[in-house]
Fold this sequence. Notes:
Elements: H1 11-18, H2 27-41, H3 47-56, H4 62-65, E1 76-82, H5 88-96, E2 104-110, H6 114-127, H7 136-148, E3 151-152, H8 154-172, H9 174-180, E4 184-185, H10 191-203, H11 214-226, H12 233-245, H13 255-264, E5 277-278, E6 287-289, E7 292-294, E8 322-323, E9 326-327, H14 331-348, E10 396-400, H15 405-408, E11 422-427, E12 443-452, H16 461-477, E13 481-482, E14 495-501, H17 503-508
Parallel strand pairs: 1-2, 1-11, 2-10, 4-10, 11-12
Antiparallel strand pairs: 3-5, 6-7, 8-9, 12-14, 13-14
Helix pairs in contact: 2-3, 5-14, 6-10, 7-14, 8-9, 8-10, 12-13
Amino acid sequence: xxxxxxxxxxxxxxxxxxxxxxxxxxxxxxxxxxxxxxxxxxxxxxxxxxxxxxxxxxxxxxxxxxxxxxxxxxxxxxxxxxxxxxxxxxxxxxxxxxxxxxxxxxxxxxxxxxxxxxxxxxxxxxxxxxxxxxxxxxxxxxxxxxxxxxxxxxxxxxxxxxxxxxxxxxxxxxxxxxxxxxxxxxxxxxxxxxxxxxxxxxxxxxxxxxxxxxxxxxxxxxxxxxxxxxxxxxxxxxxxxxxxxxxxxxxxxxxxxxxxxxxxxxxxxxxxxxxxxxxxxxxxxxxxxxxxxxxxxxxxxxxxxxxxxxxxxxxxxxxxxxxxxxxxxxxxxxxxxxxxxxxxxxxxxxxxxxxxxxxxxxxxxxxxxxxxxxxxxxxxxxxxxxxxxxxxxxxxxxxxxxxxxxxxxxxxxxxxxxxxxxxxxxxxxxxxxxxxxxxxxxxxxxxxxxxxxxxxxxxxxxxxxxxxxxxxxxxxxxxxxxxxxxxxxxxxxxxxxxxxxxxxxxxxx
Length: 509
């Protein structure tokens, strides 16, 4: 619910690759790529490994995709994120847009839970936080803390208090929203949903009645899931990781980090950090009850974890090194490295050169985790305002849609505005049941549909295959063409990509 089951995608590049559109890379970006190659040579890579690194970068695949169409300069894409769960695709696509001057992407985010909308706005606010507020590493660790941990470090908690105070003002003052974050647009939300945003940000403030005992909720969920196996839960956790997830292309997740997350809900840890404050962005079902709030507690994932979105793959192949099944780096360290790249590119609009001295080799090291500290919910010291303008990526705009649009968006006869509107749509696995047989009508004549599978879950193989077969059957129903051949035996597909090409365009070609 709070994160996806597939890695972050550069959706602009995915569209260009699917339709073999030649991408015009800016001269500055090309120079930075060459600098990346030179930097790799400083780490004693031989010539062949340097070439592999170059091919592993996102732009390395452009040569195969270049062919039939005009360069992508000046192209504008409308992208629908239908239940993506988090803003990972928005962050990565924004970070890479500096390579394509003149092109634009309009994101339309659609989620059924208003608390997730508020959380996504906060995560975007961290990614686009003014560079004068935090340095790059602190911003990355701040994002990781909020994104994947049930308990927060005290500095993160202090930041959330101040940030929520500012966000509360922004969602109730359109002028302030436009001044601080001109790339955000919430005009598509109903008034009741704006009230929901106000409740969500207000709940983050440190007041006595705003209680969120997330550790208690987490423990209850784990007990209900495991029932009689709860006393042997470490064995159950190891089975899910080693016999299921690692067999499904999640081998970068290390046993110590996965086991600790399954036990406590804390995914991203470092020896110098202590988590002790509840992460209230993980709340759902907020209802005002006088001076207090009622809610559903924690209703998110407790089996896979937030490692899959940023922590399984990276273009730096040396960091992916593994010896006899023991990784040099954890999924946590891969997440840190990828976010450093994206946040650097957002701030500077230049390619990122990673210093491997930053990344710590904790893959095969068992960190000693002490007792989790208690917290005081009503501490007000240190609260400050974070009211500096966000980083403005002028090539991108983010529109938040109403939950009602889950159904009305597909009813193009009653709402013609969405007819033939989206160039690309990404659908999260939980939202696939909401798709109707006429969903293709909201897609343009030349569009890409990306469907998320259930590969990175601990469900049985039969369940995963059955769901993937449903995705393929649905795409066939819409007369969509697979981007690659999915009939290959034993293929492991975190996402399935299909393209729509109208008969008119096919006849022209």
